[in-house]
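Researcher: Quick sanity check before group meeting.
Model: Go ahead. Protein one:
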Amino acid sequence: MRVLVVLSILISASSDSIAADFPTVAHLPSLSQVEDFGGSMGAAPGKEARPLTALTLDMIKDFEGWEPAAYNDPVGYCTIGFGHLIALNKCEEVDLKQFKDKKLTPSEGEDLLEKDTRSARISVQQLVTADLNDEEFGAVSAFVFNVGKSHFADSTLLHLLNDGLSRKAAGEFGRWIRAKGVILSGLQFRRACEKMLFEQQLKYSVDGVFHRDTCQSFSMADASGDIVDIDTGE
């Protein structure tokens, strides 16, 4: 009996560790991926995507959450891994193919995320005429991956970037915090972290891991205009 208790504690500790490294969250679908399914604002054929920094990828992974097996996200899209969309239908309604009865490893999930973010990254490369450093590029790419390429193309953020007004552009991230009419704390944290990354203030914690709590000092007073719903754009 004592052995079983100890084993139970070890399993629990291991599970807690995995959850801490790869948080499971009620994630919103990447609107960039949704566009890719519809062929809207897709990446140019043969265009190579600029890579993201490790910190940018870890930030995106945190906000996408981690689910090794296929599941239905809050809007009913079949999803797996770090927010990878399998289909714009429920899992029960589609052929899961290689994801049927499959549990991804974190490495496999990262490979999918790298592919999923490509069209968002290429969109940034195509639409932004100003030079962006690695942190600025990562922040804008993460933003576009979340809110979609078409919304970005029509955004004040893009116009300010192309006018060379990077400081004003940074203030635009905090506006995009509403989804389907509701202001979400997850989007507030996400925009805060993107803004901090854009301004080269986002760092790994002392334990060498990205923690979204490092962005909690962000104030909505930094936002430069009316709040924007990510489902409708400006």
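Researcher: Fine. The other one?
Model: Protein two, sequence then structure:
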Amino acid sequence: MTAAISDRVTLIRHADDEAWIEGVAAEMAGLLEQDIANHGRARMLLSGGTTPAPAYQRLTEHPLEWARVEVGLADERWLSPQDHDSNAWLVRDSFLNRAEGAHFDPLVRVGQSIADCVHTANLMAEHSRPPCLVVLGMGNDGHTASLFPGSKDLPHALASTHPYAALDATGCPVAKHWHLRITLTPAGLAPIPNRLLLLRGKQKLDVLETVLASNDIEQYPVLAAINAPGNPLRVHWCA
């Protein structure tokens, strides 16, 4: 069932896990296919975590021209792309290893400082084809990407005019021991026409309702995705 729960958010409720996985993958495939048809190539930004991995795997079963698809990340922990706790590793394991020919741009580049990695990410974002979609998650604290409420660098990241920023999440329990991050900013979200928020469980739906009743982006940074210009945020949810 699909319903507009505000002028900024469309909620797609799926009956079960299988319907959720197929629905997310089908929407992603359709957006990529359309961009390939219109522009010859398509670019998307993916998030890590266990929630989206099954949808990434299902996406690879769609018969797209993967050599025409470029993949980037919405955020990353300050870890080597080969580290199993990195978002790069999850995307490679669940998607890239199955989508032969797809091109991947990690955010962390071994041997570079975090400042240099952010600089490179911003240069690539400014000179690459704009993404046609970004896949996001949301924590129970209202964070998305690595925009963590309460982190000392959050105001800087929210105000940045660049697509990516470094963020120190020291003091935010949900960041665990991975304090240093590279994250998409509101400026980075703004040009992306299709934003997909993947949620599972009643608690996440309750958090979303709380977020929508608020206008405090520092308390609920997921508002950066909700308030971005363009199409309403599309939330795929199942219990």
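Researcher: One line on it for the slide.
Model: The two ends are 13 Å apart (CA to CA).
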